[in-house]
């Protein structure tokens, strides 16, 4: 799991030295504490940027024919996802409103139902999907080769 986050860190421009020694939750918590201690609270510029990004994204997604959701529904989904990811404190600081998620359950069910339909009507594709999933799970179980003592 932490190999994945080191890769994401590189894509975001973090030096490898920042994430190189993180191999478990304890190391990640120590880095989070350091980041929390050195990161400023969101300001008005951050709130404006967040609002602009959410508005642009939700309006763009609303133009996608399927699933047919309104821009406000997409915005609620973005807000709910961001709050779950960032936590209430940071989300509040960025002006991300709390949003109900119950209305998205049909969307999730539709996606799961579509996947199930493909797997039932095309057994070969279903088997390929299962094998891909098994391979991903097995890869995640392999110890990080860059880790000392692994």
Automatic annotation (TrEMBL):
Domain named ER-bound oxygenase mpaB/mpaB'/Rubber oxygenase catalytic: residues: 1-100
Protein name: ER-bound oxygenase mpaB/mpaB'/Rubber oxygenase catalytic domain-containing protein
InterPro entries: MPAB/Lcp_cat_dom (IPR018713)
Entries under Pfam families matching the protein: MPAB_Lcp_cat
Origin: domain of life: Bacteria
């Amino acid at each position: 799991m932490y190999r994945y986050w080191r890769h994401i860190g590189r894509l975001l421009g973090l030096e490898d030295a920042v994430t190189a020694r993180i191999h478990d939750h304890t190391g990640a918590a120590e880095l989070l504490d350091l980041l929390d201690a050195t990161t400023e609270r969101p300001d008005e510029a951050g709130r404006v940027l967040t609002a602009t990004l959410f508005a642009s994204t939700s309006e763009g997604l609303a133009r996608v024919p399927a699933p047919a959701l309104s821009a406000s529904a997409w915005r609620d989904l973005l807000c709910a996802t961001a709050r779950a990811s960032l936590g209430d404190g940071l989300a509040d600081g960025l002006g991300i409103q709390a949003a109900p998620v119950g209305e998205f359950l049909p969307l999730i069910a539709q996606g799961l139902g579509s996947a199930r339909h493909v797997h039932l009507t095309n057994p070969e594709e279903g088997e390929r999907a299962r094998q891909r999933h098994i391979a991903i799970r097995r890869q995640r179980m392999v110890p990080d080769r860059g880790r000392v003592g692994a």
